């Protein structure tokens, strides 16, 4: 029997505190040159339109916005979420594998994780990761296919929210 990964407790690496303001380009969702704590209705509308256009928190073009509403891109080759020598890419691969394992169990497939492409995140009481990745499909000549997963990381708990092909 395959365990229900959406509710199963896991012990992957724990995301560590983000780098300081000087080390990031978007601190608390605001670019460094943002001189107000308030955003405009237009800022909110533009960001909402971007989320609608791209189908959620995946592949956001952060350069378009002066206010990011707490959303951040994750540098996959850095170690902001984990302790070195592990990288953020390793951590995100662990989360993507959990999501893919659940997807395979639910759909009766045997997809394998290929390459992690991009990850964005939004912190709140949990950190929600929006992961874009490639899978290899052994049932289809090992063809590479794009997938997306949403995974919430709570302290001591991981919840797979979704894992689906990118359409």
Automatic annotation (TrEMBL):
It comes from the Eukaryota. Residues 1-37 are annotated as: Disordered. Residues 1-11 have a biased composition (Basic and acidic residues). Transmembrane segments: none annotated. This is Cystatin domain-containing protein. It comes from Brassica campestris. The lineage of its organism: Eukaryota, Viridiplantae, Streptophyta, Embryophyta, Tracheophyta.
């Amino acid at each position: 029997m395959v365990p229900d990964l959406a509710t199963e407790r896991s012990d992957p690496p724990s995301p560590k505190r983000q780098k300081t303001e000087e080390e990031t380009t978007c601190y608390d969702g605001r670019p460094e040159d943002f001189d107000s704590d308030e955003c405009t209705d237009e800022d909110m509308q533009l960001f909402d339109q971007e989320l609608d256009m791209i189908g959620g928190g995946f592949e956001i073009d952060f350069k378009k916005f002066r206010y990011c509403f707490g959303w951040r891109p994750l540098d996959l080759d850095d170690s902001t979420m984990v302790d070195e020598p592990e990288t953020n890419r390793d951590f995100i691969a662990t989360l993507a594998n959990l999501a893919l394992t659940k997807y395979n169990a639910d759909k009766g497939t045997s997809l394998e994780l290929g390459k992690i492409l991009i990850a964005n995140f939004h912190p709140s009481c949990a950190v929600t990761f929006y992961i874009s990745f490639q899978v290899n499909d052994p049932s289809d000549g090992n063809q590479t296919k794009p997938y997306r997963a949403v995974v919430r990381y709570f302290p001591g708990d991981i919840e797979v929210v979704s894992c689906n092909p990118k359409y």
